[in-house]
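Record type: monomer structure entry
Structure origin: computed from sequence
Chain ID: A
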Amino acid sequence: AGSGAAADWREKVPFRQSVYLRLALSAVLQANEALIATRARAQSLAVDRASPADRVWLSDLIAKYGVAAAKTPPTEALRKALLLRLDALPPSLVIGKGALDSGWLPSRYTQKEGPEFGRWTLGRVTAARTDGNGFRQPRAALQAYMHHLNTDADFAAMRDARAALRAEGRPLDG
């Protein structure tokens, strides 16, 4: 193999797709576990009986998910609105949309159009707004991407469909 052999994997679409799917599925499942644990804690809180520390935690989470402004005292209505946004995402949806946004995981150094999960690392502009100081790890880009899907107005219909599936006791479906 010549010196270009190491870069040839980028041209082998089935291989690139296989690598992407294996990496993305594991990462999405792990990120979903964290979302489910945080959601379970938020679900378990009765706002009127929550400790001061739990109320601060809930208030911060409500602000992080764009339900209310920072430092807004939590209410039961705000907690319920938070739960519409704070939830796991169907892995098929995250992986499929991420594949489209990233071009099946090409290197950001070799193809500017394909950052992982549609986001640049190291402070470049992202497909979904900007990422501030950037992401030094793909996991951080994935978590921000999933947060974007859970909070951006463009994905409200997806969140409503997810809530309907939950209300019916059905599994999440991309």
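Annotation 1: The helical segments are 13-44, 52-64, 76-85, 91-102, 138-151, 156-167.
Annotation 2: DSSP finds six helices and no strands in the chain.
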